[in-house]
Amino acid sequence: MDCLCCWSVSKPLYLLLFFYFFSCTAKAAFNLSTISFDEGYSPLFGDGNLVRSPDGRSARLLLDRFTGAGFISSRMYKYGFFSANIKLPGYYTAGLCVAFYTSNGDVFKKTHDELDIEFLGNTKGEPWRFQTNLYGNGSTSHGREERYRLWFDPSKEFHRYSILWTAKNIIFYIDDVPIREVIRNEEMGSEFPSKPMSLYATIWDASNWATSGGKYKVNYKYAPFVSEFKDLALEGCPSDPIEEFPSFDCYESDIARLENADYATITRRQRSAMRRFRQRYMYYSYCYDALRYPVPLPECVIIPSEKERFRDTGRLKFGGSHQGGKRRSRRRGRGRVQASNLEYDPDM
Fold this sequence. Notes:
Layout: H1 11-25, H2 37-40, E1 41-45, E2 50-52, E3 58-63, E4 69-73, E5 77-87, E6 96-103, E7 114-120, E8 129-135, E9 146-148, E10 159-165, E11 169-174, E12 177-183, E13 198-205, E14 225-238, H3 248-259, H4 268-281, E15 282-285, H5 304-309, E16 316-318, E17 343-345
Antiparallel strand pairs: 1-4, 2-3, 3-14, 4-13, 5-10, 5-14, 6-7, 6-13, 7-8, 8-9, 9-15, 10-11, 11-12, 16-17
Organism: Populus trichocarpa (Western balsam poplar)
Keywords: Apoplast, Cell wall, Cell wall biogenesis/degradation, Disulfide bond, Glycosidase, Hydrolase, Secreted, Transferase
Enzyme class: transferase
């Protein structure tokens, strides 16, 4: 079957063909080494709401009316590849936020860096949405978020979500298909994330903004809400944030291996898949939000056809924190990550 198939077909067949296009355009699955929870992670908050599997290879994060839950990488990394197979809660998920992200906000409180994948719940029968975002050197006034729909139901089965971060670029992946790339350029300056970061995974109550700008709240009648993480992968250069530079051995071996890995380069076929995804499923991009940024930020590559499509975005403000809830349990590990800046919900 030819991947470049005709698009004028019925919707069910269209979606099947679109999924096939992704699967045949991407390379074979990345060659990843997975680790157990104890090899790379520590509980962050939630006490009994973080449940590890008997073999230690996976973990569940639960949200109930008392608290959410989260875990954190045991070490910080100066560049890396962070990946997990994730399954999200189903049925009624309005107000939920499940986040898979990197940050150093506990160490650099005013100059923190951050790379986000945030899943936003919805009302019964409506699909999950998600967004990617990045901040560098405390640039919270410059939210660089994009928002998307998915071509599958993330509550039905596991899918792999990954973040690549190097000195040259940042790539977000779904099932080994790149969906976004940010290439470092000189004009970004210190706003390109460059300090050691930890990896976080959390589930929390984001009722005040996650669904239709806060219109629909978490309904604890359906609790507990369960998100599952397995096949955890951490590749990169472990680094002490107090040191100005990582050790010589770390820099020469780990960074070189990271930059030469199969997930560090987008092939022509993958780039075609990324373009198709963004054309079909991206519904907000900060690069085209003239209300927020009359002059696009320096890394933006303006595509005329996309600019026309996104001309009306940027209407509703929303904001939040990765670790919310009515009550936060006493937690081990690092403290709370700072809230995101005000952003806009283009759905409204």
